[in-house]
Amino acid sequence: MKQVAYHEYASQALPILSKGAFLTTAHGDKRNTMTIGWGNIGFIWGKPVFTAMIRHSRFTHELIETSGEFTVSFPFGDQGKALSLCGTKSGRDLDKFAAANLQTVPGQKIATPVINLAGLHYECQTVYRQDMSPSDLVPAFQSKWYGDTDYHTLYYGEIVACYVTE
């Protein structure tokens, strides 16, 4: 494991994100991971921040609302099958970790684990959250992405740990 600056692998992380990364959260004895394809790595309020978008209907939304933290794991190798499963099944209905044969390791600075795979890992504590306002979204995005009106909450997570594992 190698500690790195949050932006050191950004040019690699964003193309990986467009193909899928794992966002994991946990609260109490419940945990879940989901596939994300959208997000933002930035610098806000003097802090490194990852912005994640999670739909209200997702089990992950329920958990992150209570935990206030999440991890993001950008896989360096092929995780297509696991990403597909974690992006199409609900953690309410099955243990995605077992079904996708994913192992976790404890977070270094937060209670939420990270996926144990070769990749870049962010540990994030939510510093701001905002529900989308449909009236503020351009109509083209409204019809393309939200025909079912299942809007996202945006979670701004301060990146409190960032590292690469092989």
Automatic annotation (TrEMBL):
<dbReference type="GO" id="GO:0016646">
    <property type="term" value="F:oxidoreductase activity, acting on the CH-NH group of donors, NAD or NADP as acceptor"/>
</dbReference>
<dbReference type="InterPro" id="IPR012349">
    <property type="entry name" value="Split_barrel_FMN-bd"/>
</dbReference>
<dbReference type="Pfam" id="PF01613">
    <property type="entry name" value="Flavin_Reduct"/>
</dbReference>
<comment type="similarity">
    <text>Belongs to the flavoredoxin family.</text>
</comment>
<dbReference type="InterPro" id="IPR002563">
    <property type="entry name" value="Flavin_Rdtase-like_dom"/>
</dbReference>
<feature type="domain" description="Flavin reductase like">
    <location>
        <begin position="14"/>
        <end position="166"/>
    </location>
</feature>
<protein>
    <submittedName>
        <fullName>Putative flavoredoxin</fullName>
    </submittedName>
</protein>
<dbReference type="GO" id="GO:0010181">
    <property type="term" value="F:FMN binding"/>
</dbReference>
<dbReference type="InterPro" id="IPR052174">
    <property type="entry name" value="Flavoredoxin"/>
</dbReference>
